[in-house]
Amino acid sequence: MRAQFVMSEIGVGLRRNLTMTFAVIVSVALSLALFGGALLMREQVSSMKGYWYDKVNVSIFLCNKNDAESGGSRCSKGAVTPQQMEEIEADLKKMDIVKQVHHETADEAFSHYQEQYGKTPVAGYITPDQMQESFRVKLDDPQKYQVVATAFAGRAGVESVQDQRETLEPLFEMMNGMNMAALAVMALMLLIALMLIVNTVRVSAFSRRRETGIMRLVGASSFYIQMPFIMEAAVAGAIGGVVACGMLLLGRYFLIDHGVALADKIHTVDFLGWDAVITKMPLILVISLLMPALAALVALRKYLKV
């Protein structure tokens, strides 16, 4: 009988404050959808970093005749000699952080250039002797680029040392910035949701002050009186959590697989699968239950004296 009474009181409370309950559901759904999206974006950025950083190289470009004739300070001692190339390669292979070393000849560099820029007008004026030989170095830890740069920058025969990670950092910084913006909006939406929950509980407690007064007189416990209000907030939050999970599923479906179909348009990115989305759902549902319930409990201590 008590459980039936509590459930009937929850239904009465939700119907009596239908507009505010709807606002709570929407705000909780949006805030938790942003929270889940931010978690997925952070995981996607980490996955992309692992994927791309494993593929990028440190490039040690060697001086050629054109560099030496141009009078540049880096190649003022002339073009790289075969002996210097052998010494550079040997020293690279001695380094513990170096995983693999590939010597790219001028002809290979010219061939790669033609593959990428062969259709541009400038490509017709480039000849193989203008291309630089280089060493493509793969590191065990790509973040230790500076060790290689310090060891070989300014060395005789070396024109420059470049870290290909630098071309990817702006993309990752932009995605991290978007992630922080999503978290900021999420925090604002959560604050709004909490304020709505507190206000809803306050209005509900005020509208049922007569019933709670009678329950006090007949000896009902504080927990028994507060339970319907807490459950109302928890039910509204749970509905919002379910909606948030649905939004994440729809977002993954339309953005990655269908609709925008990023997976078909961007083949160089390993997008997160459905398992990554599904594993975030239990956390979202737990938060959607606990957050409104705790907010209601705090509000009841102030607005419902039992």
Automatic annotation (TrEMBL):
Keyword Chloroplast on entry: no
Residue span(s) of domain ABC3 transporter permease C-terminal: 184-302
Record's bilayer topology term: Multi-pass membrane protein
Superkingdom: Bacteria
Coiled-coil intervals, chain numbering: none
Xref: Gene3D superfamilies: 3.30.70.3040
InterPro entries attached to this UniProt entry: ABC3_permease_C, FtsX, FtsX_actino, FtsX_ECD
UniProt domain FtsX extracellular: residue ranges: 56-161
TM helices/strands, residue ranges: 21-41, 180-201, 222-250, 281-300
Alphabetically ordered keywords of this record: Cell cycle, Cell division, Cell membrane, Membrane, Transmembrane, Transmembrane helix
Subcellular compartments: Cell membrane
Keyword Transmembrane on entry: yes
NCBIfam families, sorted: FtsX_actino
Function: Part of the ABC transporter FtsEX involved in cellular division.
Protein family (similarity comment): Belongs to the ABC-4 integral membrane protein family. FtsX subfamily.
Subunit note: Forms a membrane-associated complex with FtsE.
Official protein name in the record: Cell division protein FtsX
Species per Swiss-Prot/TrEMBL record: Streptomyces sannanensis
Gene name for this UniProt entry: ftsX
